[in-house]
Amino acid sequence: MSTEIQLFAGLTLLGIIEAKVVDASMGIIGGTLKPTSAYYTNYQPFFRTHLETPDWKGLAALELKAISPLIGEIVADGGIDIADVEGFNEVDANVCGIGFQQMKRLFPEG
User: Fold this and answer.
1) Parallel, antiparallel, or unpaired: how do β-strands 64-68 and 72-74 relate?
2) What is d(CA 16, CA 37) in angstroms, rounded to the nearest whole number?
3) What single-letter DSSP state applies at residue 39?
4) Using the 8-state DSSP alphabet, how is residue 98 labeled?
5) What is 53-86 written as a DSSP string?
6) Which of 9, 63, 89, 105 is surrounded by the most beta carbons within 10 Å?
7) How far apart are CA 41 and CA 35, in angstroms?
8) How far is CA 28 from the centre of its chain?
């Protein structure tokens, strides 16, 4: 089963992830990001460059956050990972380091 997660940079919606549990023991959920036009226009160049040459200060400045319609903001102690590789049509996103209680609320059947 999957759950819809909204991915934001500050107040800007980057897209929707149909998230599934990637690794329950590590509190990781993820899936393919369905990007908004704002993602393509304002953020895609950053994420593609970040894969080649990491810019941790720039990444922190984006204030990435994941929001679930079920539980609100997801506490991602391990951060949010976006992999957008030039030449591929899909953008992968993972929300990492989610606590056990939030995982159970997001995926009660798991």
Assistant:
1) antiparallel
2) 12
3) I
4) -
5) S--HHHHHHT-EEEEETTTEEE--TTEEEEE--T
6) 9
7) 10
8) 10
Q: What is the pLDDT of residues 5-47, one digit of tens each?
A: 999 999 999 999 999 999 999 999 999 999 999 999 999 999 9
Statement: the pTM of the whole predicted model exceeds 0.90: yes
Residue type, position 72, single letter: G
Tokens standing for residue 69: 């319609």
Task: Dig out the tokens for 1 from the structure.
Answer: 């089963």
Token couple for 35: 């990007």
The residue whose two tokens read 């990492």 is: 96
Q: Is 18 helix (H, G, I), strand (E, B) or coil?
A: strand
Residue 92 pLDDT level (bands cut at 50, 70, 90): very high
